Amino acid sequence: MAAGRGRGGRGPSRRGLIVTAVALVCAVTAVGAPGVAGVAYAGTHVPASVSAADDPAPVPASTAQLEAVREQLDTLYRDAARATDAYNAAEEKAKEQSREIAGITDRIYDVQQRLDDLHQRAGAAARAQYRGAGLPPEARLWLSDDPEDFLDGARRVREGEKAAKGVLAELTESKGELKKLEREASTRYEKLEKQRKAKDKAREKIEKQVKQAEELESRLEKEERERLAELEAEAARRSQAAWVGSGVLAGLDDATSDSARRAIAYASEQLGKPYVWGAEGPDSFDCSGLTSQAWAAAGYGIPRTSQEQWRRLHRVPVQQMRPGDLIIYNSDATHVAMYLGDGLMIHAPRPGRSVTVAGAGTMPILGVVRPDPKQPSTAAAQAGGRKGDSGKGEGQKDGKKD
């Protein structure tokens, strides 16, 4: 926006946009309150009565104001990440319920086919009894011209009656099984509907948080957005420097497993592809979509969400992590990245960004998990081979599944 555009009522000035952006931050964080004549924020005071027409000259946003915007954007995207994890979890559960319903439906079909067959057999037995006119065996013996033929027929009748009783018992059992399966299917459908509602709720929250963040950024001038990006980069550099300076990388090497190398190769091929919440490739990814698909390409099926990856995968100390391990971020495990070695990681950051490489210490680390804990590092395998063994670990003998 050109300077001076706010004069003469031709549109909002640059200062007007900055005031709007800061006011939005205050509104979201509940700093502002109705009825207050002005907004005090980050050591500045912008009177509410200042209008675009009264603005004598463009006033740049202060560093403190942009830092407040940066922090608020981080909060909004963190909330969106949390909602994305909830959406992905609900999606996975919905898929599971759908698979179970399909299995129950197949079993119901099989039982119904068996019931149809039993009904036919029961009907045949009833017709045979009708043809015997219901006469007792003694009467049929006296009326028979050939007693031996009668006795042979009597044996067949008894066998038929026994078979009929078996058919009726099996018929009763099958009907009970059918009712049980129908109740089970109904329960699964209820759970599926619950997961769908959870997905819808999470989707609404994601869209709301992302929209707020995009609106907040859109209210900044190009120069402010550039300065905001610089502040983000500087904050990341400080965090990475502090993490590396802590000595956490001392003693680490880049030796890793062959499966981890395959996972890294897959993730690296996705560089530059956009972040899209709920996406797991091939054209876009969210953070856990990238890591889960990378390890799937390496032959390991791991949980879909970052929270489940943290909960269910084998944990290793940060000081022992190796390339291919997954770094879980934030206290609520709402972000995940893949460690590459040399203090770097690859991840899908957030909406508006693409799959990229960054410092592994640029965000607060919760912990590290390893999808293939039974697979030895390449260096260890080579060392084992030099000692005359196969170089294979327990995981390679028993298969890839942990």
From TrEMBL:
Residue ranges occupied by any NlpC/P60 domain in the UniProt entry: 257-378
InterPro entries assigned to the protein according to its UniProt record, in alphabetical order: NLP_P60_dom, Papain-like_cys_pep_sf, PG_Endopeptidase_C40
Matching Pfam families: NLPC_P60 (PF00877)
UniProt KW Transmembrane helix keyword: no
Region (Disordered): 366-402
Keyword check for Protease: yes
Keyword list, A-Z: Coiled coil, Hydrolase, Protease, Thiol protease
Segments of skewed composition (Basic and acidic residues): 386-402
Parts of the chain that traverse the membrane: none
Coiled-coil region(s): 66-107, 164-241
Similarity comment text for this entry: Belongs to the peptidase C40 family.
Record protein name field: NlpC/P60 family protein
Source organism of the structure: Streptomyces fragilis
